[in-house]
Structure formats: C-alpha cells, structure tokens
Amino acid sequence: MGLLTILKKMKQKEKEVRLLMLGLDNAGKTTILKKFNGEDIDTISPTLGFNIKTLEHRSFKLNIWDVGGQKSLRSYWRNYFESTDGLIWVVDSLDRLRLQDCKQELQSLLQEERLAGATLLVFANKQDIPGALTSEAIKEAMELENIQTHHWLIIGCSAVTGQNLLEGIDWIIDDIASRIFTMD
Amino acid sequence: MYKNINTPGILAASKTTMDSGTKLSAPATSTALDVEGKWNIVSERLQKREDERLSEIQKKKEQKSETAALQESTNFFNTEFNKEKVAIEAGLSECDRVDKANLIDRFDLLSLSLQKMQKFLAESTMFLPPYEVRLAQEAISKLQTQIQEKRDDLFPKKRFAFKSKKKVASSEKQIAKTLPENVCREKVEVALTNCKYEDLKDQSLEKFEDEINNRDVALARLENCTVKLYGAPSAVHMNKLNNCRVFTGPVSSSIFITECQDCVFVLPCQQLRIHTTKNSQFYIHVTSRAIIEDCSGVKFGPFNWKYPGLNDHYKISGLSRSKNSWNDIDDFNWLASDTHSPNWSLIPEGEFVKSWDEQIC
C-alpha cells in the first residue's frame, strides 16, 4: 500500500467534496456561498479574486471555491479546475441580455477535460424578484437538454431568501457521493 | 475469568482433585500442594487454549489482508474488469440472434452488469493509477454507447409526427442555419423584462413606484433620452445607452451597466458594476464597492438627486444611508495598488452638479 493509497483512503474517510462555483459576474455566487454559510449578505462587493469556504454538511466536508466572474477574471478559472468533484454554475435569472454569453461560457467549461467527471448543478438565481426568468425558460435558452457529458440539474433559487439552496447542494452531494463514496 | 470457570474442562479438573484427595487421605498440607499443582495444570491448559485462539485469529487476519492486497492490485482489477467487458461484448453480439420477446430482458441484464462494472471501478479508484481509471472509464462509456446503439437498432423509437409538418420544420431549420447569430440574438433580446424602455430616441421617460418597486428594470438601446425611475427597484440592467441621463431611486441589490457612452448616471444601490463604458459621469451611493471593467473616462461623485418620496424608497430598499463608498472604485483592468487607475477619476468637489432639475430642463 503506497502513501498515495493511504492518503486517498483518508480522504475517503473524511468524505471531502470539492465544489467549484462559477458563473458570469453579478450572478450572485458570493451571495449564495455566504447565505449557505449563514453569513451577512448585505455588504458583499463584487469579487476581486476568489473566496474559499470549508463547511461541514451532512457529515461531508465541503470545500466550496467561489471565483469572481468578471470578464478579466474568467481566463483564471482554469486554475481552479483540478480535482473538482462538482461544478455549480450560477445564472442571473434577470440578465436576459447576457444569456447568450452565459450559455457560451458554460459550454466551453463543459468541454474542459479536467472537469470531465464533475457533476453540474445550475442555480437559476434571483427567483425572489418578480419577473425573473423561470428555471424552465433558462434551461431552454441555454439548451441544457443537450448536455450528455455530465450529470446535471437546474434548480431555481434565491440567495437572498435562501430558497432551494439546500436542495441544490444536497442533490449535487448525493450525485457526487454515489460516484465516489460507494464503499460505505 | 468467572465465565471460564463454568466451562466443562475446569469442572472436570476440580472433580479429579477431590477424588484424589479422598483416596489417599493425605495430610492437609500435601492435599493443598496437590490442589495447587492441579490448578497450575488447569491454568496452563487455559493459557494454551488462549494462545491457540489468538494465533488462529492472527492467522485469519493475515489471510484476509493477503487477499485484500491481492484484490487491491492493478492486475487483479484488469483481469476482472476485462472478464466482465468480454462477457458484455459477447452478450451484445448475441443480441441479433435472440428472440424479440427475450430481448428486453437481455438488455436489462447487460445494463445491470455494466452497472456492476461501474461500481467495481468506483471501488477500485483508490488504488488504481489515474491512467488505468481513465482507460476503464473510457471502456465503460464505450460499452454504454454500444449497448444504447444496439438497443436503438433493435427497437427503433416510434416518433409521433405529422408528415406534412415535418417538412415545414426542416425548411425552418435551414433558415435558422443560414442566420444562426441573428436568430440567437433575437431570442435573447425579445425576452426582456416587462418593466423596460428600449429602442427609443430623444425622449423624457418616467416610471413610478407602483410599477417598479421590488422589480427588475431594463433599459436598452436608448439615445439622447432622460430616464427617471421614482421608486425602489430590486435590480437594474442598462445596455447600450448613448448620451442619456438616468436617475433611479434606491436599488436594493445590484445595478449592471454595459456599453454606454456620454451618459450621466445618478443612482443609489448596493452593488454597481460598470463594463465597457466611456466618457460618462456617475453620481452614486454604493454601500459595497463599485467596480469598472474595460472602461475609460468615467468620473465619480456622490449621489445628490432628491425627489419627494426618496426617504420612503430608501426604507423599502433597506440600503444603509450612512455608508457610501462613491470614491472607492475597483478597476479590474488596473490591479496595481500604488498608482491610480487612469481609467477613472473623481469629479472635483467644486464641479458637482448642484441641482439636477435645472440641468434637465
């Protein structure tokens, strides 16, 4: 048994899951992260760089990486792909003008070899605001049905009210767990 | 220890001690010695049994770890994996010869064994080198598509369709193919929110609280317009404004501005993002930090628009009036902290516009 095997076994015992949260700027990635972690969301500035949070949830240790979505930061996204178990793609459900951009960015991510095994959760954020596009409409506009390469789910949510955040995270953990932690 | 006393072996031993004692009728001291000796024998026997038991356990443990080590080797995985793979491939090639009635069961069986393979792989990932894992994953996905193809081949899906309509659809597709970009663009922009102004020129536009409170508002492709939003929207998106003046009440979350030029924006909000905008002025109240990206010639001053009802709208939006970082802007294209970004500047205090009403009229 090599050292690597021992390390892998330890990781398995701890049930660590690495989630990468991406999306265009103004989607609400940091707000989702902070709300999920029970922090104040009124003082969040646009992310200049990235945030990492490690939290315990359902006996899993979640490492959530939230990387800024500004255009000038997107070229750095690939630095965070390595050993990602799940990709959380956040969409601003009000931003109808940039849905096209949003779709293209996601599609190029899905072609990434290093994200090939990752589960994809799409959060259609800002559902608390009247007039937001429904998750169904976003699914159609982004042609999510065509995704064959990844397990995926789209779910409408609101980072402000916290609606559906838990449901989404639970789904992605379950999906990852069924792939990685089949030993238990 | 008490438990051991009840075992038959010890009972038998104590019985013999008693027998010998009565037979010899030896003095009390020798009987005591005798008893002690017997006890020694018994405890020795006990010790021996205990040792045997322990060595048995040890042996079993070793055996188990040996088999585990055997099962946790790449070779073992490869042989087992290939066995399964060959079995599935054989099963697939037989499908052509199997009765239609049994085919469904046959396919179920095949997918079941494929699932087993997948589980086996998942269990083995911890000791396999990444290369082997990838090969195995590729093999599995290949098998999966093979099974799917075979299934599609043997059970063609019945699609419900009107034949005459199909033709129309295909001709539509051709049009779409020739103009893919236009079609996509139209699709996205037509879907703008209800609460909006778009494609207007030389106009003065106003919206009031009943329409915009807690909603999102969109302004797109306006030229030489003045827009006033008297209320507390949740979010505002602005795109391609040219030579416009935009006034808003307090926006509870974020404002997003792209591709504008020669404009004046007067607005309070929680977050402000400004992209690809040129030569514009911003009189703002931002409770977090405003950011610019790909901008040039943008100037900032403090929010100073007043209208009746502004206080109420502040309350609805929940914005803190005490915190305003209008003069602290992050430029995503200028990360040096020691020199100021050339892309933005502050409006000198003496040049602040004092009364907007005069300016607009």
From TrEMBL, chain A:
Mg(2+) binds at residues 30, 47. GTP binds at residues 23-30, 69, 125-128. PROSITE patterns: ARF (PS51417). GO terms for molecular function: GTP binding; GTPase activity; metal ion binding. The keyword Acyltransferase does not apply. SMART domains: ARF, RAB, SAR. The keyword Magnesium applies. Keywords: GTP-binding, Lipoprotein, Magnesium, Metal-binding, Myristate, Nucleotide-binding. It comes from the Eukaryota. Belongs to the small GTPase superfamily. Arf family. This is ADP-ribosylation factor-like protein 2.
UniProtKB/TrEMBL annotation, chain B:
SMART domains: CARP. It comes from the Eukaryota. It is found in: Cytoplasm. Residues 180-334 form the C-CAP/cofactor C-like domain. Keywords: Acetylation, Chaperone, Cytoplasm, Phosphoprotein. Its main location: cytoplasm. GO terms for cellular component: cytosol. GO terms for molecular function: tubulin binding. GO terms for biological process: post-chaperonin tubulin folding pathway; tubulin complex assembly. Transmembrane segments: none annotated. Tubulin-folding protein; involved in the final step of the tubulin folding pathway. Belongs to the TBCC family. Supercomplex made of cofactors A to E. Cofactors A and D function by capturing and stabilizing tubulin in a quasi-native conformation. Cofactor E binds to the cofactor D-tubulin complex; interaction with cofactor C then causes the release of tubulin polypeptides that are committed to the native state. This is Tubulin-specific chaperone C. The lineage of its organism: Eukaryota, Metazoa, Spiralia, Lophotrochozoa, Mollusca.
